[in-house]
Amino acid sequence: MKQSEAKRALAQGGAPSNTAARLVHSGMFKSVVLGAILAGAIIVGLETVPAARESIGGVLVAIDRFVLAIFVLEVILKIAAEGRRPWRYFADPWNVFDFTVTVVCLLPLDAQFAQVLRLGRVGRSLRLVTALPRLQLIVGALLRSLPSFGWITLLLFTLLYAYSVMGVFLFGENDPERFGSLWSSMLTMFSVLTLEGWFDIMHDQMVGLPRSDGSASMETSPVAAPIFFVSFILSGTMIFLNLLVGVIVNSMSEMPNGETALSKVRDGETAPFATPASPLPSLHAPGAEAAHVTLLVERLARMEATLAEVREALREESREESRRRSRA
């Protein structure tokens, strides 16, 4: 009985060994922290409204201090939940982020560094990522994609540079404001990349812009301009956007199964951490030790079930053998 209870406790997240750990892993505590994050985000937004500051400024300050107190209590409880190894709290990057934001909000900064304090308070809104494991999974996939993003960005910059140089040669005389120099041409092509007003820019190059003296421009490109802009949009926007989406999807598919299952369990679902054939989650993942222990317990339970079936099959075979001998 005790052994089955221990297994059940491990499967629920690593068997919290003290009161602080049980409190930190409780659903009510997570709901309170999530509510504090949302309240802090709303307060920061209300402080940007002058009418709200004048009418309920004192109430906003009181609520802000209460929210900060909850964050400080959360940090203390999470460190206490590690028991005799409090430094393990800082092994989780999300905990480091929470701790940094809380410390910045507690610093006794004067008016000269008021902007730092405000940025720290805005950073508390970003703690919504640490409070929701599903968001952690998405952010983790984005961080895994950063190396690929760098190469895609380099390729996109090369394409942007090549088209900007061609733009100076093709449209510099007709439209010196947009294509008179390499820098202005790159800014123009970047705006085209965002699909903002690109048709008007292309139309100006097709029909020509009037000269400063009011005469019509003879520098028109009715054929080159459509080919130039349409090819740039197709290659720069469509292809590269699909590349970015593909990189993100590939990164999410490569995320360890243990992290995904751990997110489900943290959200209250009862799905197992991984299938028997799936690998153990990365040791660098949040809550990796609990995932390892849970996965091992599950595999041991399956082995015990398999052994029980084998024993039952052997007993049945022995009974059949006994019946045959008695009949003989």
The CATH H-level superfamily of the domain at 14-131 is Voltage-gated potassium channels. Chain C
Q: Enter the CATH topology name of the domain at 14-131.
A: Four Helix Bundle (Hemerythrin (Met), subunit A)
Mean pLDDT, to the nearest integer, reads: 74
What CATH first level of the domain at 14-131 would be assigned?
Answer: Mainly Alpha
The number of distinct β-strands equals 0
Strand percentage lies at under 5%
Number of helices: 15
Radius of gyration (CA) equals 31 Å
Order of helices and strands: HHHHHHHHHHHHHHH
For the largest beta-sheet, the strand count, sense and barrel status come to: none
- Low-confidence runs of at least 5 consecutive residues: 1-16, 257-281
Structural class by SSE content: mainly alpha
**Coarse shape:** flat
Rounded to the nearest angstrom, the distance between the terminal CA atoms is: 44 Å
What is the level-2 CATH architecture name of the domain at 14-131? Up-down Bundle
Helix percentage = over 70%
Layout of strands and helices, then pairs:
Layout: H1 2-11, H2 19-24, H3 27-46, H4 50-81, H5 93-106, H6 114-123, H7 128-131, H8 133-144, H9 146-171, H10 176-179, H11 182-193, H12 198-207, H13 224-253, H14 257-266, H15 288-327
What do you see in this structure?
- By secondary structure, this protein is mostly helical.
- Among the domains are: 14-131, Voltage-gated potassium channels. Chain C (Four Helix Bundle (Hemerythrin (Met), subunit A), Up-down Bundle); 146-253, Orthogonal Bundle (Helix Hairpins).
- It is 73% helix and 0% strand.
- The chain is built from 15 helices and no strands.
- It has helices at 2-11, 19-24, 27-46, 50-81, 93-106, 114-123, 128-131, 133-144, 146-171, 176-179, 182-193, 198-207, 224-253, 257-266, 288-327.
- Helix 8 crosses helix 13, helix 8 (133-144) packs antiparallel against helix 14 (257-266) and helix 12 runs antiparallel to helix 13 (224-253).
- The longest helix has 40 residues, at 288-327.
- It is flat.
- Residues 1-16 and 257-281 have low confidence and may be disordered.
